[in-house]
Amino acid sequence: MAARIQGIARHALSTFMIGETAVFSSNFEKLKTLLDGITAEDINLVVGTSKERSNGSYSKAPATHVSIFECPFFTLAVFILKKGCSIPLHDHPGMFGLCKVVHGQITVVSYDIQTEPSSNGKVDNFSKHQFHTHFKQRPVRCKKSIQTLDQNSETCVLTPTSNNHHSIHNFGTEPTAFIDILAPPYAQEKGRDCTYFRECNPPLNQVSTIVMDSCDSWITEIPPPLDFFCDTQPYRGPVVNLEIISQPPE
Ligand SMILES: [Fe+2]
């Protein structure tokens, strides 16, 4: 019988290989359901053993990337985030994503970009990624939301327009780990580079004209933060490769 992670990768391939067709939504929902059931044991992941803690074998990297599988249609990986560490506010331009916590607890702070009337009265499309460069370097209005997730939580989902800009924090007292599927993968040459942001004040000319509510927030682009970087660890779970996940389910 196929391992759970192999079934997830197989379904991810069939979901993202055909793109956003009529069946995409139901395929994506099924992928989320499959991911809801996965555990750290399913991928032989041991996070922060007492031995590792005591001998100081951890690197200084705030996060560790464990690649499980990648292809032109999606990436499947684990991120381990040390206690007290964060993945800074960043985006996934034009991408879908699924994030399932398998150890510890994370807090995801999301910023959904608001479409606003521009000064000429027309709707400004800067929330769409193909116009991403239009809003670089200037503050953008967002709706901010906060989710706390642990291994009992459902998979957190992002789309090109929802939860796409987010920061991820480990406020807990132990490392946390989550499985991450991104589709299509980041690809700088195709306009899918990762951009970093920070919260900022609203532009002065907007302060008096926009009614803010408690969820409103503004973000602006920043250079990649120098204090955030990942080291890597080998994947030790069931083998996931194109040959295995291209086969029909048993
Ligand atoms: Fe992310």
Detailed description of the structure:
The chain is α+β, with helices and mostly antiparallel strands and 250 residues long. Helices cover 18% and strands 32% of the residues. The protein is built from six helices and twelve strands. It has helices at 4-17, 24-36, 50-55, 132-135, 204-207, 242-246; strands spanning 63-70, 75-81, 86-90, 96-103, 105-113, 140-150, 156-158, 165-169, 176-183, 196-200, 216-222, 230-232. The strands form two sheets. Strands 7-4-9-2-1-12 form a six-stranded mixed β-sheet, with helices on one face. It has a six-stranded antiparallel β-sheet with strand order 3-8-5-6-11-10, with no helix packed on it. β1 and β2 (75-81) form a beta hairpin. α1 (4-17) packs antiparallel against α2 (24-36). The radius of gyration is 19 Å and the shape is globular. It starts with a helix and ends with a helix. The model is unreliable at 117-131 (pLDDT under 50). Fe (ii) ion binds at residues 90, 92, 166. It comes from Acropora cervicornis. Keywords: Dioxygenase, Iron, Metal-binding, Oxidoreductase. This is 2-aminoethanethiol dioxygenase. One of its GO terms (cellular component) is mitochondrion. GO terms for molecular function: metal ion binding; oxidoreductase activity, acting on single donors with incorporation of molecular oxygen, incorporation of two atoms of oxygen.
